[in-house]
Design goal:
Order of helices and strands: HHHHHHHHHHHH
Number of strands: 0
Structural class: mainly alpha
Helix content: over 70%
Shape: globular
Radius of gyration: 20 Å
Length: 310
């Protein structure tokens, strides 16, 4: 391998170790809780807490240590106007819905041609967990850690290869990290966009806020909307339910309209104007076809298959 393949292989191995460590920690904690009180491992609130501890908090020092061995450089810092940030919210929501539609279509096709009913385990957890846990763990803590893991730590170390390479790596690893087919497509799309925003601004706070908003829409706001729709369809109409549903539809329509318009103009965005110090002749081959990345991708695909079969 040349030096560039070795670099991306090391990155792949680092995230593979992080993923394996998360699973080992989860197995240990679940077994301990099972011995203490078996009811805890069947409670969705407990599982939500365990998921946050195992995926973010406990493996955090491991990934920090591994990535800390690689030289880093922070993108040049720029400030977003309120108008542009609102536009970025619309683009994020549009990419999320587009990716979600793709994911639902593919998983529905798999369910149709196989005996497996492919479901989204995260959505099941959201629907069954306490809304305050969803707010704290999924909508706040999750985005903070994920943006540090897949934007700050990753892009600061891959920027020397240019913006395009950094965006590809960030989007791919972020999508695969979720470990299930339902989430991969929209995670890949918004992960790439968050990478673009971070490279453009050099400030992780912007992508954290965007991530919090998109998770808040999916894990908290959606529950109120579904509840409102159920009340309306069942005949127990309340003014607040109507207001929530109407406001949500207006936000969706406005965001989708703005998002489509702005995304159609992204073809004119010159990402190449943020070149790296190192130019890759075969970027996709160099970034993906190396031992570390291949093993991480294989590990993630194995998790997806396991989730489908389970």
């Amino acid at each position: 391998m040349n030096v560039d393949k070795k670099f991306f292989s090391k990155v792949g191995f680092n995230y593979l170790i992080y993923g394996i460590a998360s699973i080992i920690i989860q197995v240990i904690i679940i077994n301990i809780l099972g011995l203490l009180n078996s009811n805890l491992i069947y409670d969705f609130n407990s599982l939500t807490i365990i998921s946050a501890i195992c995926n973010y908090i406990l493996p955090f020092p491991i990934l920090i240590y591994l990535m800390g061995k690689i030289d880093s450089q922070t993108p040049e810092k720029n400030t977003l106007t309120v108008k542009r940030f609102i536009t970025y919210i619309a683009v994020t929501l549009t990419l999320m819905w587009a990716g979600n539609i793709i994911g639902l279509a593919i998983t529905a096709f798999i369910s149709f041609i196989t005996p497996f009913d492919v479901s989204n385990p995260v959505q099941s957890m959201i629907n069954s967990s306490d809304i305050w846990l969803n707010l704290m763990l999924i909508s706040i803590i999750g985005p903070i850690f994920e943006e540090i893991f897949f934007r700050k730590l990753l892009i600061d170390r891959t920027m020397k290869y240019g913006a395009k390479a950094s965006i590809l790596v960030s989007a791919l690893l972020f999508g695969l990290f979720h470990g299930n087919l339902n989430q991969f497509f929209y995670a890949f799309l918004i992960g790439g966009f968050f990478a673009y925003v971070y490279i453009r601004t050099g400030k992780i706070k912007y992508t954290i806020l965007l991530h919090i908003i998109v998770n808040l829409m999916g894990s908290v706001v959606s529950l109120f909307v579904v509840s409102g729709v159920e009340h309306i369809t069942s005949g127990f109409v309340q003014p607040l339910d109507i207001a929530i549903v109407v406001l949500y539809i207006m936000i969706i329509f406005a965001s989708f309209l703005i998002g489509i318009i702005k995304l159609s103009g992204f073809k004119n965005v010159r990402i190449a104007e943020l070149p790296g110090k190192i130019i890759l002749r075969e970027p996709v081959k160099t970034i993906i076809l190396n031992p570390g990345m291949i093993l991480f991708i294989g590990f993630s695909i194995a998790l997806m298959i396991r989730q489908i079969i389970a």
